[in-house]
């Protein structure tokens, strides 16, 4: 049975835990993700248990064959990837790393990103 998400804690999600969460999904294993992240597997497990506890929902399905996201985990994973991409972009910009091209950043609501923004850019 799925419990409602603890709305009070949703806004207080730790970005580091979200980045860890994305790594776990991408590697399919706590041990592999921990090695890539440079932290211990028990610390990573504890971090994910806390994230699930803070949100009041289960994000990961653990099995002998690996780890997969729950439906809620898929949703959080999509946002975690976006957060990681934005953090990487910010770091690159701060370091002055560019490929010589110019970039335009457009801020929009997610609901408009797939419909209105492409039309506006095309024009």
Provide a descriptive summary of the structure in words.
The chain is mainly alpha-helical and 123 residues long. The protein has a single domain, classed as Arc Repressor Mutant, subunit A, CATH 1.10.10. Helices cover 61% and strands 7% of the residues. The protein contains 7 helices and 2 strands. A two-stranded antiparallel sheet has the order 1-2. Helix 2 packs across helix 4. The N and C termini lie far apart (48 Å). The relative contact order is 0.12.
Number of domains: 1
Please give the alpha-carbon distance between the first and last residues: 48 Å
N to C succession of SSEs: HHHHEEHHH
Give the CATH H-level superfamily. Winged helix-like DNA-binding domain superfamily/Winged helix DNA-binding domain
Regarding CATH, which class? Mainly Alpha
Query: How is the CATH topology named?
Result: Arc Repressor Mutant, subunit A
- Average pLDDT value? 84
Q: Judging by the overall fold, what is the CATH architecture?
A: Orthogonal Bundle
Number of helices: 7
Helix content: 55-70%
Largest sheet: 2 strands, antiparallel
Total number of β-strand segments? Answer: 2
- Kindly name the structural category: mainly alpha
* Strand portion: 5-15%
Shape assignment: globular
**Rg over CA atoms:** 17 Å
How are the strands of the biggest sheet laid out side by side?
1-2
Low-pLDDT segments, ≥5 res: none
